[in-house]
Design brief:
65 residues
Amino acid sequence: MNSLDQAVHTLGTGLLMGMLSLRIENKRLKRIVTRSFVLVLAVLLADAAMHLLPNALAGFIYRTH
């Protein structure tokens, strides 16, 4: 597995943590897990955008220089 695949699998584990946060009773721990879940979700969405829009992103970057 390359580093990207490993990172995606690690992020998937974080998503599972987010699902588990529904069962946590401790407010502080639940807040930490929920924020981690939101962070993981944001990174996955950014990764998907990078794969879906590589030419558009490259065009934007080169157009701004």
